[in-house]
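Researcher: I need the complex structure. Ligand is pyridoxal-5'-phosphate. Inputs:
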Amino acid sequence: MIITKPKQLMMNSSKKLKIPLSVPTIRGNELKYIKECLEEEWVSSAGKYVDKFEKEIAGFTGSNFAVACVNGTSALHIALLLVGIKPDDEVIVPVLTFIASVNVVRYVGANPIFMDCDEFYNIDSNKTIEFIKNETIFKNGFTYNKKTNKRIYGIIPVHIFGNPVYLDELFEVCKERNLKIIEDAAESLGSTYISGKFKKKHTGTIGDIGCLSFNGNKIITSGGGGMILSQNEEYAKRARYLTTQAKDDGIRYIHNEIGYNFRPTNIQAALGVAQLERLSEYLEIKKKNYEIYKREIDKIPGLRLAPVPTYANCNYWMYCLQIDKDVYKKDKEGLLIDFLKNQVEVRPVWQLNNKQQPYKHCQSYKIEKADELSSKTLNIPCSVSLIREQIDKVLDILKQ
Ligand SMILES: Cc1ncc(COP(=O)(O)O)c(C=O)c1O
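Model: Output:
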């Protein structure tokens, strides 16, 4: 396979490489399909590529239904409406996730309850079960929070950085307690379980609904885009209805509900279809680069590359460097500055959501691991287009 040098690398001198964190790789039929949309004048939020993208994502993930959205956030927003989360309900969410997973809870007027994470940065299943068993009661078919007396009607497990959330027992508890599961699989397209109850299943196909994102930094992109996955035809039909302005009569423009303009354009979908053609190749590259990084980083005292779960095949979307500052003699912030000085883009994990201004007042449950991991983790360059020279540059900075 020919690996072309990323533009950034060609534009800079070899001394000062600019290495981005996660950028798209466009090396397939992207232009061809987009040109076709333009030539056929199908540029807006309908067209053959939207249908094709949905069908192909459904086929790839093994989902019965897939409904395309303008981005991952809108997919999650609609998902919460579909399962029937109501204003004043509560929804269990991980404290460590991109804020979009939490904002959508507020979009529907509900409130988040923050859960700690496990060693894979994912919502801690055991602690969540402990919370449900000890801190809630089950009454008239619903789960109520003992502290607030509010109904808890859902949970959003987020497959952080592509690592599938351990769901085996949590899934059962949620079913017993009538808690709707909305999987945020924005980062985990291509990740599957290899053991346990959900063996061979793709993330996003286990809960009541799953949502994907095709933002520019994801493993494949449609520029901006999202997808609602469901096994339930009613959810899929309603998702299509709500995302197209709840149009009941397309000729007379009759709308019996308040809908949303959440469909992607044909151009976005064309880009997505071309990207999806390369996904298997991208998954292999991501894994191979993870292994190179891991072999070298784990040799450096005080550093390690975060492991991935053994119960799953990950898509290795984002690589997490963990720093033991006492051994390495430098902390996350120090290393961040070193990278930036060398024009290498790295990123600390998101500020925890219980510390974000709009959510400081919300309930949190035993947040410990998330604090620890966020204090010592940097995401390091992981684009599919990463070449060995760039990986070596990252390693050199770490070794200095
Ligand atoms: C975990 C998670 N959830 C939701 C989103 C929202 O997706 P989008 O940016 O496509 O709206 C993202 C990423 O962008 C994400 O990483």
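Model: Summary of the prediction. The chain is about 35% helix and 15% strand.
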